[in-house]
């Protein structure tokens, strides 16, 4: 990997494009280096993973709405949409919108956490939609997805969006554009313009994941995917983009991220902050392996809760009566405490009438239910009746989080053997005794007790789609997707999952 310093430059500096981050990202995308065998296999795993959670969410309201909008944009030979027949095609940006929403709705697919947050599997819907529409092969798709994962994960390693209250899709849209460029074999110049356009149009704010969290949490990554498809389309037609989009005087770094002093932002000075983002990218001819550093979810909840759910399952075995608990303190990282813990200061995270989207961002709720039930279910664990149970509310309101500097250090460690997203839990009982345990990574994590392999992804698919699709369709999809490298041009429409006729819920009427 090569490290690239990225900072603000005044317009008069005339920063050469060869020194701009977007150009370097485009260079990685344009590099036709072979995709290694284990990376290919992991890409297949993640396509299976996406299909699992998308079908499980297929008739939830946001997914129904997104699909209904996409149905207004049919295209012969276009992209497929989850739930519909493989023979039906739609405009790729709208297929990316519908499928991206389905994948994201349950918050149960893959994740990568470093300087910022990400769900790199969000790259799959837009890149696959373009691959289907442009009649690309399985190998083309694999190359595009390896690139999308690489760019998003490398940006997440280096540039923190959250500290500036910017949503993580600002890294997703450029990565999807780069992945589409790699898929199509576009020239570096074209990908460069597409990446810049993608970033320019995709900066939005963290309020979508704070307070009263709405269905936009599921729509946001799908919107980024749709914008990425449109950005590449414009760039292919010769249209340019705001440049330099990362380093320019009025760029994203300049006015949204770390780049200017506060005095400069208020017009009182003309000083630039001496801040460099050090962005790692593969060098020329270097394999794109970032997907191997990401990890999926066994439980349908925010990733920082995965290890704590497993820890709750373990600790409950040592508790005779949960009513004997006086209080629970979760010692964890800065991000966990301030995003899904009591440090967020969101009263909604303690409200039994809160939305599902809010509850899956409340570690207090999640830990209480996991401790009581000893299981986690993507529907049952969030049901309003489940959240409103009196004993659950009592336990839930006894839980607090606190930041522990050591867990924060582990959260940001660059040593993969030390990296941890869990915490240490202290349970205090009314009789003065105490139970303490800790867990650094989820059981399903690559360093966990039971790392996910191909059979686990297949089992997740069969479990989440059981009763929704036929056994024949499940078997067909799994056979096709595991043969992805051998799929020929024009065969990628087979990488879709259809429901039996008449089982898809129809959406409310709108404009489209």
TrEMBL record:
One of its GO terms (molecular function) is lyase activity. It holds the Pfam family MmgE_PrpD_N. InterPro entries: MmgE/PrpD_sf (IPR036148), MmgE/PrpD_sf_1 (IPR042183), MmgE/PrpD_sf_2 (IPR042188), MmgE_PrpD (IPR005656), MmgE_PrpD_C (IPR045337), MmgE_PrpD_N (IPR045336). Residues 299-484 form the MmgE/PrpD C-terminal domain. This is MmgE/PrpD family protein. Residues 19-260 form the MmgE/PrpD N-terminal domain. Belongs to the PrpD family. It comes from the Bacteria.
